[in-house]
Automatic annotation (TrEMBL), chain A:
Topology in membrane: Multi-pass membrane protein
Record organism: Pseudogulbenkiania ferrooxidans 2002
The name this protein goes by in its record: Binding-protein-dependent transport systems inner membrane component
Gene3D superfamilies associated with the record: MetI-like
CDD domains hit by this protein: TM_PBP2
Record InterPro entries: BP-dep_ABC_trans_perm, MetI-like, MetI-like_sf
Location of the protein in the cell: Cell membrane
TrEMBL record, chain B:
PANTHER family: ABC TRANSPORTER PERIPLASMIC-BINDING PROTEIN YCJN-RELATED, ARABINOSE-BINDING PROTEIN-RELATED
Key word Transport present: yes
Domain of life: Bacteria
Signal peptide positions on this chain: 1-20
Family recorded in the similarity comment: Belongs to the bacterial solute-binding protein 1 family.
Keyword Protease: no
Cellular component GO terms, alphabetical: periplasmic space
Keywords: Signal, Transport
Protein name per its UniProtKB record: Extracellular solute-binding protein family 1
TrEMBL record, chain C:
Gene3D superfamilies: MetI-like
UniProt keyword Transmembrane present: yes
Membrane topology: Multi-pass membrane protein
PANTHER family: BLR7065 PROTEIN, INTEGRAL MEMBRANE SUGAR TRANSPORT PROTEIN
Protein name (record): Binding-protein-dependent transport systems inner membrane component
InterPro entries referenced in this protein's UniProt entry, alphabetically: MetI-like, MetI-like_sf
Residues covered by the ABC transmembrane type-1 domain: 91-305
Signal peptide: none
Annotated family: Belongs to the binding-protein-dependent transport system permease family.
PROSITE patterns: ABC_TM1
Protein origin, superkingdom: Bacteria
Amino acid sequence: MKKHPVETLLYYVAVALVMVISLFPFFYTISSSLKRGNELFSTSLWPAHPSFSNYASLFRDQPFGAYLLNSVLVSGGAVLLSLGVSVLAAYALGRVSFRGRGVLMMTILGVSMFPQVAILSGLFELVRALGLYDRLGALVLTDLIFTLPFTIWVLVTFMRELPKELEEAALMDGVGVFTLIFRIFLPLLLPALAATSLLAFIGAWNEFLFALTFTISPEQRTVPVAISMISGGSSFELPWGTIMAASVIVTVPLILLVLLCQRQIVSGLTAGAVKG
Amino acid sequence: MKIALMSAAAVLALAGTAEAATLRLECGAPGPGQNVCMDSAKEWAKKTGNEVQFVATPNDSNEQLALLQQLLGSGSDKIDVLQIDVVWPGILANQLLDLKPYSKGAEKQHFASIVANNTVAGKLVAMPWYIDTGMMYYRKDLLDKYHLKAPTTWDEMTAVAKKIQGAERAAGNDKLWGYVWQGRAYEGLTCNALEWVSSFNGGTVVDAKGKVTISNPNAAKALDTAAKWVGTISPKAVLNFAEEEARGVFQSGNAVFMRNWPYAWSVMNQDGSAVKGKVGVMMLPKGGNAGRHAATLGGWQLAVSRYSKNPKLAADLLLYLTSAEAQKYRAITGSFNPTIPALYKDPDIIKASPFMAELYPTFASAVPRPSTVTTSKYNQVSNQFWNAAHDVLSGNAKSADALAQLDGTLKRLAPAGFVAAK
Amino acid sequence: MTSQTLTSAAPVRPSSAESSLQRSRQRTAWLLVAPALVVLLAIAGWPLLRTIWFSLTNAQLGDLTQLQFVGLDNYIGENGVLRDAAWWSAVANTLRFSVISVTLETLLGLGVALLLNTPSRVRTLLRAAVLVPWAIPTIVSAKMWSWMLNDQYGVINVLLQSLGLIDHPLAFIADPDLTFFTIILVDVWKTTPFMALLMLAALQMVPSDCYEAARVDGVPRLRVFSHITLPLILPAVLVAMVFRALDALRVFDLIYVMTSNSRLTKSMSVYVREQLVDFQQVGFGSASATVLFLVIVLFTAGYMAFTRRRMQGV
């Protein structure tokens, strides 16, 4: 289809505008994280003498690497657990019609509407009762509160799309339900799983309130909490340079993951949106 | 020989298990400030052969309080010694150990007003650690340039600020502002507004007997004075300034006056600071000639959790950290103001932070926020107060109306007046 | 082959063997759902019940064991949440925020989606770029923007000034007239990509023969868009709007980090947190949390009822 040159020009102007608006803030964060001392308060777009001293002090003052590992463990754990549980549930909810299914689906959606702060005291009691206080396990468990409803809903929509013939053929052959789910459906669902787990991972990675409340010792700290704990010489002083450096570090893994899986994300959201 | 060595090792090991304990100390967020605290704690650990672990909390003091309450409320022994804000003793009293049996009278060395603040229902729940008060920073070089002397009342300050701001801007320094302070709707505004109100003899919102006193003409006048600064000698953005935003402006050389806590002194005099050596400090101005110099009392205390497994050792650590020796070290390395009056005459401290000697009268007579009398309701009182002040500053309410409304709200919080803990 | 015969035969004559198969399938279904249900009951059901219970008491954060039952006092009592002017102003703020930001995000999202749907050499690059704001943690973007929007050392003011758009720096996050607009702006920046992707997905499912037919008939572009594209993607747009609205109604981090939290910008979640955490009133705070939850449930139910026909119609 041929286009008028003015139209093409407008298109590229719009694209450029969107790209600049999307990328500029992150670019400026990176540039700020490379500034030192008073340079931070200047508004130059790029520091005259970029320096990694903020990053160095981040890793020197505290075991930031260990915090990153904790974050990976918690988010990874929460994602694996919710995928394991929700694949089973999604099969049942998506492919078997049974009474109460609609109510179940709405209840699960309802759970994802909870304001986090509202259930904090109850969760705290639960975590202590299970003996998980100040352990990463507490975070894996509590993060399920938002990852699980989400993964169930998205996987249900994918499950519905799988061809009926496949299942019936398998059942005729006398295949057990677990074999059906894990051997036959799962490989077909891989792109969907990739998208869902990525989205759930982002949620868990950024979680702050639970991580702050349910852990206390430095060995169990995750990155968002560590960022909130960066301070300067006194309780009033905010070392902006270090905070910016930490922000870059917490964000880069996510951006990389998102860019790697962008195709799956789009298709994952497609199913979620249209059938949701 | 071998046997002797082995038995010696065994004895050592035994001694270790019998005496050495691990204490958990919470002294704020990781950073240079915590490092100063760690130094002293490690010193104690070395002396007594015990171990100290550090528990970090968020930088934001609201989050800190919430975390500590949840932790202490659950009876957890994850913290032995903790730092608490000067307005918390009333809130946390039930979870803290009475230090009287351990202190052997050590509290008598400290400022009596803070010890009184930390005594709830006859129990000494926390030991003073360092003190903060509001103070006025100013640019000596700019005042000298225009041959102006340091103002003593708010009106004089306003006039000086206006004059310098106008002259400097005319000369091309168009980013310069007269006065920066903390106007965000948060605890810091309560501190600022309390200073204005009490400098005009407008009381302390709730008096020591628990009566709400805020709705009075002097308080209204104080808020009106401050509201006039916004947009004239203070940038409009001051309505969202906390300590660091104000310091950011002042330290880049863009303000003549700044209200801030003592911490700003050492930061601003570091190498690379645009105002190094150009800063003077003085008491906050009086509210007119009949007014007084008023500075809000801030600062941190150390306390021992009631659920500590080693209360005696924990108290020992606390007493070491609050001792004259440790406070002197902190004053010199981190410009933390001692809570022991005698230290203000110490030549080493005066050499490191000359302002400490100059401002001694301010420290000694700082105005406490009404936290002892309002106890667990303090945060609500403060929140209502800063919201009222913020409404006046942003031009959304007239001072007299806002204060009358505040008066009503506070009286509803405590219909029979606030009553200090039994 | 077998499946074909099975599917065609099944509706005609359900044999007893098949209905028992059906029953066992249903049993299996419940077993499969069970783990998810148990987990959700434990981590969501129990805490919710606790919150509702606390909302009927005068519990304080300092000591949760000392509490008295006070009935509905926290809701409708003299100082109950429903009689608190501050609560209603928080409700108004939140609704205003949600309506404006979701509307803007939908419109802009549609624009970006149309850009993304246009075949061109830079499309992949553009898609990667718009995903970046969305991948940045809210807390980080809130801090980043407050840094950039600062009137004294913020880069945005400098840029706007050098472009000649403003003549003096604006206090975006302090000036009460601007704060609200600023929060919405940042929220739009962060979540428009999400909306755009959802709509892109829908756009890509519009069959191309629709466009072909229209092009052959010489229908103007705008008319094609409003008469063909829009009706076809409407269901997806409506669903996307629900999900966004659910998030917007709970908005917390952005407002908490960026603004001064004065009454002018306080949202419902900020109000709840203030009561629960800052004021230590677990009883009252739980009551307001429960009301917040009910508001969201009501909204969702209302929205679903209102749009049900439209969502299913196409």
